[in-house]
Amino acid sequence: MTISSDEERKAREQFETHTDNVDGERVGYASRKGRRKVEGFGGKPPSRIQSLWRDINLMIGLASDYSRGNYTQIPWNVLAAVTGAILYFVSPVDVVPDFIPVIGYVDDALVIKLALEIARPDLEAYAEWKSA
To answer: Which intervals of the chain are annotated as region Disordered (predicted)?
Structure first.
């Protein structure tokens, strides 16, 4: 199941708004809220985002390590995209509400993928740093 082109446009716009408004405080906020949401799934993510679960957790970890000053080798635009995606993911007000069966996380998956287009190499570098 997919979302309409209008819903996709709105999700992109919300993601861009979140990304444009990122500052250090919002990075920390996103990491805390993202961790709570992920933990709320009890290790069983919704099927629509299951294939992105590793990436979602990496994004949240990156935001957390950045906000604590543990990992700062990340370009600001990449950090902003990651933070914007997390903020969209945790928002109770997104294009397709998460509680709607079957399609609830389709827009979240879209936004995570948009962030990954920007952040993939830096996210993988972070994963290597984290595992070292």
So the answer is: 1-23
Q: What is the pTM of this model?
A: 0.95
- The length of the chain is 132
CA dist., res. 128 & res. 115, Å (int): 19
**Spatial distance between the Cα atoms of 55 and 59, rounded to a whole number of angstroms:** 6
Pairwise CA distance, residues 107 & 89, whole Å:
9
Domains in the chain: boundaries: 5-131
Q: What is the CA radius of gyration of the chain?
A: 14
- Report DSSP state, residue 94: S
For residues 50-65, average pLDDT = 97
In angstroms, the CA 21 to CA 18 distance is 5
User: Which amino acid, 70?
Assistant: N
pLDDT 10s digits, 102-131: 788 999 999 999 999 999 999 999 999 999
Q: Are 71 and 45 in contact (CB under 8 A)?
A: no
